[in-house]
Design goal:
globular, six-stranded antiparallel beta sheet, three-stranded antiparallel beta sheet, 185 residues
Length: 185
């Protein structure tokens, strides 16, 4: 498993690549989140469907314009191309298991995002490193806190300034592609 932990929220993800019955590579995901904590902000996976079963606790989610609550023993589906977010809507630890179909690059994307978030002492990621991750995965994933049209204009400018300032030199900066190899098979 690739284990990712957000030191600011306590979210933990354990991810591995597996083949499903049809031979397609998917991501098997196990996760947990402390009470009243938020998972990721509103986002979209352009080509991946996520499915999850709540093992313990209550999952709150926004799927498109709908808000849902998913208690232990029930499941939620986040279709490809639909904006969504999720959080722990209960008073106990949330534990879930699920999958992302197909895997594409979600594991590398999450690995990079967690690295960028964890590199910040305040929980506010460096704009240079965050934008680098979002830009290189722009064809498969997007955070929706800034409209995609604005991202297409603003992000190349931020990347240019980051390059001028030397933010992307070497291979030891948070979220650099060389350090985000993804989940094992």
């Amino acid at each position: 498993f690739l284990t990712l932990e957000n030191r600011h929220t306590g979210e933990i993800l354990r991810i591995r690549r597996v083949r499903d019955e049809a031979g397609q590579i998917i991501l098997a995901i196990e996760g947990s989140l402390p009470p009243r904590m938020s998972g990721p902000p509103i986002h979209v996976h352009f080509h991946q469907r996520e499915e999850g079963c709540v093992k313990v606790g209550t999952l709150g989610a926004r799927v498109g314009n709908e808000r849902i609550l998913v208690p232990a023993g029930e499941s939620a589906v986040f279709p490809a191309g639909v904006v969504h977010s999720w959080w722990n809507a209960g008073e106990s630890q949330l534990e879930l298991s699920g999958q992302a179909i197909p895997a594409i690059d979600l594991d590398q994307y999450l690995q990079a995002l967690f690295a960028v978030l964890n590199a910040s002492s305040s929980g506010r990621p460096s704009i240079f490193y965050l934008v680098h991750v979002l830009w290189r995965h722009r064809h498969t994933q997007a955070l929706m806190t800034v409209p995609v049209a604005i991202q297409r204009i603003l992000f190349p400018l931020v990347l240019l300034v980051g390059r001028i300032l030397g933010k992307y030199e070497g291979t030891s900066w948070p979220g650099c592609p060389e350090s985000c190899t993804g989940a094992p098979f």
